[in-house]
């Protein structure tokens, strides 16, 4: 059997991380986690994942900043990134905008809360 694909999940909400980790593992993937963008970059350097699920609104380094750094680096720019955001519902109360999403170099983005089946389908589509 081929090695399991590695997914890095980066989000600052421990409960959300645990729930999404269970969902993604149920799809047959190995999941590692980080709790902010800086930790996420360190995790990528340590154990290069096949795909990154990255929250936008986080302390220390937000998802847009982490995504930009990953896409600017030759070693990591080809790793697919799915941004997760609650921004769609909070555009008027957030410093993040739809333009940020469109200008991001992430391959995909999904609103929170995520639908488990849709998340697994998106992950699968970027890994095949």
Chart the SSEs and their pairings.
Blueprint: E1 6-10, H1 14-26, E2 30-34, H2 37-46, E3 51-55, H3 63-72, E4 81-85, H4 87-90, H5 98-103, E5 108-111, H6 116-127
Parallel strand pairs: 1-2, 1-3, 3-4, 4-5
Helix pairs in contact: 2-3
Task: Give a brief outline of the structure.
Helix content is 43%, strand content 19%. With 128 residues, the chain is an alpha/beta fold. The chain has one domain: Rossmann fold (3-Layer(aba) Sandwich), CATH 3.40.50.2300.
Overview of the molecule:
- The protein is an alpha/beta fold and 128 residues long.
- It has one domain: Rossmann fold (3-Layer(aba) Sandwich).
- 43% of the residues lie in helices and 19% in strands.
- The protein contains 6 helices and 5 strands.
- The protein has helices at residues 14-26, 37-46, 63-72, 87-90, 98-103, 116-127, and strands spanning 6-10, 30-34, 51-55, 81-85, 108-111.
- The radius of gyration is 14 Å and the shape is globular.
- Mean pLDDT is 87; it is low at 89-102.
Assembly state (oligomeric):
single chain
Q: Just give the CATH class.
A: Alpha Beta
What's the pLDDT, averaged over the residues? Answer: 87
Number of domains: 1
- Work out the number of β strands: 5
**Which series of helices and strands comes N to C?**
EHEHEHEHHEH
Strand content: 15-25%
Q: What is the strand arrangement across the widest sheet?
A: 2-1-3-4-5
Q: Kindly provide the radius of gyration, computed on alpha-carbon positions and rounded to a whole number of angstroms.
A: 14 Å
CATH superfamily: Response regulator
Helical stretch tally: 6
CATH topology: Rossmann fold
How would a textbook summarize the main sheet?
5 strands, parallel
Helix/sheet category: alpha/beta
- Under the CATH scheme, which architecture would be assigned? 3-Layer(aba) Sandwich
Helical fraction: 40-55%
| Poorly predicted tracts of residues | 89-102
Q: State the end-to-end distance.
A: 16 Å
* Spatial shape: globular
């Amino acid at each position: 059997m081929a090695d399991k694909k590695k997914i890095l999940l980066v989000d600052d909400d421990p409960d959300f991380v645990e729930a999404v980790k269970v969902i993604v593992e149920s799809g047959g993937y190995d999941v590692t986690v980080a709790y902010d963008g800086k930790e996420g970059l360190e995790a990528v350097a340590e154990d290069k994942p096949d795909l990154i699920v990255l929250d936008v609104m986080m302390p220390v380094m937000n998802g847009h900043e982490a995504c930009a750094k990953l896409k600017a680096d030759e070693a990591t720019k080809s790793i697919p990134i799915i941004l997760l955001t609650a921004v769609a519902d909070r555009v008027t109360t957030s410093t993040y905008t739809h333009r940020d999403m469109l200008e991001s170099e992430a391959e995909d983005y999904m609103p929170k809360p995520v639908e488990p089946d849709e998340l697994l389908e998106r992950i699968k589509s970027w890994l095949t």
